[in-house]
Write a structure and sequence with these properties.
Layout lengths: L8 H21 L20 H4 L7 H12 L2
Amino acid sequence: MKKKRRHDGVTDAVKAMRKGNREAEMELLGPGFHRKHSIHKSANIYTRKEKHKSKISNDSPCASLFVLRKRNVK
């Protein structure tokens, strides 16, 4: 005859707390995978995206060429 396992109230409480935390996080972030830590990108990395082109400082020699070039091209 097999012995019946007794469940501790502590393990049930921990399981319930974890389940509650998972559900709260799903409500907050939504479905799918969401990373917690993002990798820091260097400012020296070149990108062609328009949203990054405004970050060119006005002091750099390439900034004036970029502005002139953009005005001429239509």
